[in-house]
Amino acid sequence: MRVKAAPYNSAAKDTTPLNCEKYRTRPHPGMIGFCEGMETTLLQNEARRQGRPTPSRTVVKLPAMGTPAAKDLGYACIGGTAMRRLANGWEQVANGAGWQRCVEG
């Protein structure tokens, strides 16, 4: 029996696949907003088509897992997903618009 391949996931390695930060230095002020809007639409539509929970429209800065700041705060950015520390592991953070995306910083 042949196993069906998993559908493509743009957010598998990073929740900011279009890397909109590279447009921060561009002279046109609307370029980063345009890129972020396209990225959000891409991720949300892909998640809906595949029956997965949708990501949030916002991206927050959180400390990386294992850093002293993450231990003090109780939150960390793990693979572009905001996670909250529990007594027995980690829990994915969600807001009203879906699971919270993040960048390490």
**Total discrete domains:** 1
Q: In what order do the strands lie side by side in the largest sheet?
A: 1-6-5
What sequence of helices (H) and strands (E) makes up the elements?
A: HEHEEEEE
Q: What is the residue-averaged pLDDT?
A: 87
Strand proportion: 25-35%
- Low-confidence residue ranges: none
How many H/I helical runs? 2
How many strands, which pairing sense, and closed or not: the largest β-sheet?
A: 3 strands, mixed
* Rg over CA atoms: 15 Å
The gross shape turns out to be: globular
Separation of termini?
A: 46 Å
> What's the total number of strands?
6
Helix content: 10-25%
Question: What is the structural class?
Answer: alpha+beta
Give a written overview of the molecule:
With 105 residues, this protein is an alpha+beta fold. It has one domain (20-104). The chain has two helices and six strands, in the order αβαβββββ. The chain has helices at 31-50, 68-73, and strands spanning 55-62, 75-78, 81-86, 89-92, 94-95, 98-104. A three-stranded mixed sheet has the order 1-6-5, covered by helices on one side. A three-stranded antiparallel sheet has the order 2-3-4. It starts with 30 loop residues before the first helix and ends with a strand.
